[in-house]
Target: 21 kDa protein-like
Amino acid sequence: MHIFERERERERERERNMFGRALLILVAVIGCCISSSSAAVSGVALKTSTDFVKASCSRTTYPQLCYSSLVSHASAIQTSPKLLASTALSVALTKARSTSAVMVKLSKAQGLKPREVGAMKDCVEELGDAVYELRRSIAEMDAPLRSKTFELMISDVQTWVTAALTDETTCSDGFAGRMMNGKLKTIVRKHIKTVAHLTSNALALVNLYASLCV
Model:
């Protein structure tokens, strides 16, 4: 008799576990369709949203940077994949703008070598393009779906973010080779590395959002 009771208890436990997993999946799927989210109102809610950010960031190439750049927005993101992707894009845009301003300032420095002048000119242009492309990606993400399908919207967002990442990487590549070694190269690549990694993470989270909702 006790054996049967233990079997029934194990069966109930399996059902509870299956229900828990199904509920987590349901929350994530519902989050895809939520365009806005209220701020967390309790410590429990904050923990849930923080865990969501951390788990999602583990799917990116640079998870530690992802988490540190987004955890302060966790209460607004809650458990919405769309808000997470949108916030990551906004963080990348903010960094791209500040990096672009740094590139403009560096390009006007005195004593640059001819090769450095050319590389900085290209870099300023490429960072300006990256800022524009990230702005477009955010506009696409936030625009209401009318004539576009979800799949087409996501495709456009992915295209803009990929273009921004390419421009950022191209700026860094302009300083390749021993002839470009020096302080300027070190400064430029340090700034570009951060914004490129943030953009890469944003693209990964857009892809994650798409995979959950397509």
Helices lie at 2-32, 43-57, 63-70, 74-77, 81-107, 114-142, 150-173, 183-213. The domain at 33-213 is CATH 1.20.140.40 (Butyryl-CoA Dehydrogenase, subunit A; domain 3). The chain has one domain: 33-213.
